[in-house]
Write a structure and sequence with these properties.
By secondary structure, the chain is α+β, with helices and mostly antiparallel strands. It is built from six helices and 18 strands. Strands 1, 2, 3, 4, 5, 6, 7, 8, 9, 10, 11, 12 and 13 form a 13-stranded mixed β-sheet that branches.
Length: 299
């Protein structure tokens, strides 16, 4: 028999099961048991005293876990465990992790890494990265980004967590994408990807799209390209402008949400402007060397 309150507790515990704080609690309990083995052999009163101490520690841990379960997904691991990696605003960075995995970070990205006995944990706080995961059947590779957690063993996949949504594209192998529904008392759901599939998840956990895509052997930014796939124009311009001293702006705000797709070479402002003029029926003017304004021509 079950009741709603009990079901709620079990759902919260399931969401906390793989968190490092839970694993640390298990390790702490094991260490405590070993250290107090002698005390337990001292007799009834020594045994009672040891168990009272253990119960007090357990109560503190339980309170911490309950608090963690009711917040909106705080950091995946404690500050003592994690190592942060940042990439410059206009340049990517490669990071080789202790297990042999490689993280290829796009520009202006940040990731925090922590390895435990049971898991390899990555918190992609913002930006984009490709993960080439070294195989380790005993330690899943978990990437937290936005409202999702990508779980892999040995595989290659891209994660782009910007503009209020997270895109996951699988290149090789297999991954499970756990959708966490932050702020909602809903158990995580799992979307399994096969190579060549892409899933887009909003910040609230809604699946916006899941489809087949063409995958490249190297990320676009490693090839000096910017790939746009149904990206709102305002977001596309923000990405394109990062790699050029000449910024492109559009006067008509109603066009900001219009989607655009295509591949453009980084810094190739001339081609970008020509494509936008043709696609949206705009006219470019350049009031300064650092600014190009696209606007609708007078009727």
């Amino acid at each position: 028999m079950s009741d709603p309150e009990t079901d709620h507790i079990w759902r919260q515990l399931d969401r906390l099961r793989d968190r490092p704080v839970v694993q640390d609690a298990r390790d702490y309990a094991d260490a405590w048991a070993k250290e107090n083995a002698e005390v337990r052999r001292q007799g009834r009163w020594g045994f009672l005293f040891a168990n009272l101490q253990r119960a007090a520690v357990g109560a503190v841990i339980a309170i911490g876990l309950i608090a963690a379960g009711t917040t909106l997904m705080p950091s995946m691991f404690s500050s003592e465990q994690r190592v942060a990696y940042d990439s410059p605003p206009t340049q990517g960075r490669d990071v080789r992790l202790d297990d042999g995995s490689v993280v290829q970070m796009n520009a202006a990205s940040r990731a925090e890494v922590a390895f435990t006995k049971e898991n390899r944990l990555i918190d992609l706080q913002h930006g984009e990265a490709r993960f080439e995961v070294a195989k380790d059947a005993n330690r899943p590779f978990r990437v937290k980004a936005g409202a999702v957690e990508v779980v892999a063993i040995g595989t290659v996949f891209d994660v782009d967590s910007r503009h209020g949504r997270t895109n996951i594209t699988l290149i090789e192998g297999r991954v499970d994408v756990r959708i966490l529904y932050p702020g909602v008392d809903t158990p995580p759901t799992v979307e399994r990807l096969v190579p060549g599939q892409k899933i887009i998840v909003a910040a609230d956990g809604r699946v916006l799209n899941k489809r087949e895509v063409r995958v490249a052997t190297a990320p676009a930014w490693r090839r000096g390209m910017i790939d746009l796939d149904d990206v709102p124009l305002n977001e596309a311009l923000a990405e394109l402008n990062r790699y050029s001293d000449t910024k492109i702006v559009i006067q008509d705000k109603s066009l900001a949400i219009k989607p655009i797709s295509g591949s453009f070479r980084m810094g190739d402002t001339v081609t970008v402007v020509a494509a936008l003029e043709q696609f949206f029926g705009l006219k470019a003017r350049q009031p300064s060397p650092q600014l190009i304004v696209l606007e609708k021509p007078p009727e």
